Amino acid sequence: MVVTLTVFAGMLALVVVRPRRWNEAWWTMLGAAAMVVLGLVSPREAISATVAGKNALLFLLSLLALSLLVGKSGFFDWAAIRCARIAKGNAHSLYRNAFVLGAIVTAIFSLDTTAVMLTPVMLAIVKRLKLPAAPYVVLCAFVANVGSLVLPVSNLTNILFADAFHMTFGAFAARMIAPQLMALITSYALLRWHFRRELPNHFDGESLPDPASMVPNRAYFLVCVTVLVVVLAGYFLAPLVGLEPYVIAFAGSGVLVIAGAATGRVQVRAASELSWGLFPFVVGLFVAVQGLENLGIVGVSARWLAHMRPGSPGELFAAAGATAFASNIMNNLPAALIARSVLLASHAHTGTVLASLVGADVGPMITPFGSLATMLVLALARREGEEVRAGKFVMLGLWATPVIVVATALALTVGLVLAR
Q1: CA angle, residues 20, 24, 25, in degrees to nearest 5
Q2: How far apart are CA 18 and CA 341, in angstroms?
Q3: Taking a C-beta distance cutoff of 8 angstroms, is the pair 131, 200 a contact?
Q4: Is the separation of the CB atoms in 191 and 142 below 8 Å?
Q5: Is the pLDDT of residue 14 over 80?
Q6: Can you give the pLDDT at residue 244?
Q7: Angle at 165 between CA 182 and CA 366, to 5 degrees
């Protein structure tokens, strides 16, 4: 037990610290290798853990490709400038518009897209407008996480759960829309109150470019918007024809590759721009978490869950709280993987499964390493010279995150009760 916990804790520490600025994937793969070499995880178990997550990995690849190709159209820059223009010099309206845009991007493209593509754009805009950057950095970190509940594609944890518990795209969205709205409303209200003294009343928008100038090729841009609409509809229709949703995303990416090549917006070297490091990062976590599961954590947790009434409010709040706590201690992806195994072992109620996702998606906002998206946002901001100190982030998360988790879990509970 001591060896397993030491290896796992060391891996997480290296992921956070990133010695020599090496990619996080090096450290999760090193942790996985150590688990196998030390006999804590057998080679067969390592392979099985990876194969079990193949659908999630394929979905992740399709989403990364789709986000990259849409980014080539100037869509994210166009949308951000449009939000600033619509605000008409009202800084509070700009903050609201940025939050709404982040929520939409997160829901459709995933939280990592918000972190990697939207954060730099928003930082460039607030710098141009001479607005304080910290409120917008925190906004991007929060909305990337709290906005990732509503669709399976919004978060890798959602994909893992939807695949393991055989939830269709439509069924997942129908159950999560009310909790998602509650999470967003609560988060926005808390952030606006927290930064009430830092956000000015007005800004000078004369320096903003025309949104159309952000679009290098109008034809490709229009194709991207059309493909996004079709792909989103296809996610809901895919189960009716026996297709995995990632097939729809790959099909949409294929159309954009052809359109992008025809218009000169996409070239072969674009493949190198994909975040390939995410895949060994996730695979390493799959194997490392298997090492934790071999300690008997799943059995103990499943027995604890079995003492509660299935689907009861107490079980839902306990599941959300436990996963949120674990996410802030060990990162939300390994926490979600362990929770998934516990829920499968205990044949958990659907409501308990969704409550665990509330904790994994909305809950990891206390520590800067609670989710990879938060780490990416803070790292990108630091690279632009806009550092949000870890202490300030933690102090905000300590009081805001429990409120958001409780409010979201309550919305989920009420929705499930009304649906009976």
Answers
A1: 120
A2: 29
A3: yes
A4: yes
A5: yes
A6: 84
A7: 40
Residue where the block lists tokens 């970190």: 141
Higher pLDDT, 176 or 372: 176
Tell me if 397 sits within 8 A of 365, measured CB to CB.
Answer: yes
Tokens 């300030």 correspond to: 392
Rounded Cα gap, residues 226 and 214, in angstroms:
18
Q: Is 166 strand, coil or helix?
A: coil
Q: How far apart are CA 49 and CA 269, in angstroms?
A: 32
- Cβ neighbours of residue 260 closer than 8 Å, sequence gap 6 or more: 69, 72, 220, 266, 270
Q: Quick one: tokens of 399? A: 């009081």
Asked whether the whole model's pTM tops 0.85, one would answer yes
Largest interatomic CA distance in the chain: 63
Confidence at residue 2, expressed as pLDDT on a 0 to 100 scale = 82
Q: What is the pLDDT of residues 154-192, one digit of tens each?
A: 998 999 899 889 898 899 999 999 999 999 999 999 999
* Residue range 205-218, pLDDT digits in tens: 777 888 889 999 99
Once rounded to an integer, what is the mean pLDDT over residues 58-75?
90
Q: 395: pLDDT confidence band, cut at 50, 70 and 90?
A: very high
pLDDT higher than 90, residue 60: no
**HSE of 93, CA atoms in CB hemisphere, 13 A:** 12
What does the pLDDT read at residue 347?
87
CA distances from residue 288 to 200, 217, 360, 372 in whole angstroms, order as listed: 46, 45, 18, 16
175: nearest Cα among 398, 378, 357, 401: 357
Q: Which amino acid type is present at position 31?
A: G
Q: Tokens 């993987």 label which residue?
A: 337
Residue 6 CB neighbour total at 10 angstroms: 11
- Which residue's entry shows tokens 């994937």? 25
Question: Per the structure block, which two tokens stand in for 336?
Answer: 């979600």
Rg (CA), the chain: 21
Query: SS3 of 90, please?
Result: strand
Amino acid symbol at 414: V
Query: Is residue 106 within 8 Å of residue 56, measured between CB atoms?
Result: no
Yes or no: say if 408 and 179 are a contact pair by the CB < 8 Å rule: yes
| Residues paired with 202 in a beta bridge | 90
Return the structure tokens found at 352: 């308990």
Task: Give the other-Cβ count within 10 Å of 417's Cβ.
Answer: 11
Give the torsion sign (CA, 415, 240, 360, 375): negative
* pLDDT on residue 55: 83
